[in-house]
Design goal:
It is a single chain. The protein is rod-shaped, with a radius of gyration of 17 Å. With about 110 residues, it is mostly helical. It is about 85% helix and about 0% strand. It is built from 3 helices and no strands. Helix 1 packs parallel to helix 3 and helix 2 packs antiparallel against helix 3.
């Protein structure tokens, strides 16, 4: 059974994950909008910004998994953990969509 302090630490890590990957998702969506407007240089910068934010969230998540696997701090089910992992998957999906759409917009501009 986790102590209150351990649950608070896990909760804070979950909030960090949500914040980082939420920022990543926003950057990917903004990149799509920039590509739609033909600003591919800014779109690429936003994808890179999103990737950096996503990596921060991924590192926090990985740290939590490593502590759980080692038995140091077993993860406890919390709704916020479920939300954090859902947000990670959503951000990752938006990354793929953003990269594909940027390429589509580039090809459309080349043919125009």
């Amino acid at each position: 059974m986790a102590t209150e302090e351990e649950l608070n630490d896990q909760t804070m890590t979950c909030f960090q994950i949500v914040a980082f990957v939420g920022d990543a998702k926003s950057s990917y969506i903004e990149a799509i909008n920039k590509a739609h407007d033909g600003d591919f240089e800014e779109a690429a910068k936003l994808v890179e910004k999103g990737n950096a934010s996503y990596l921060e969230g991924h590192n926090a998540h990985t740290s939590m998994i490593q502590k759980d696997a080692s038995g140091e701090k077993p993860a406890q089910f919390q709704l916020i953990l479920l939300h954090a992992e859902d947000q990670m998957m959503s951000a990752e999906t938006f990354k793929v969509i953003a990269e594909d759409l940027i390429e589509v917009y580039k090809k459309m501009e080349e043919k125009a």
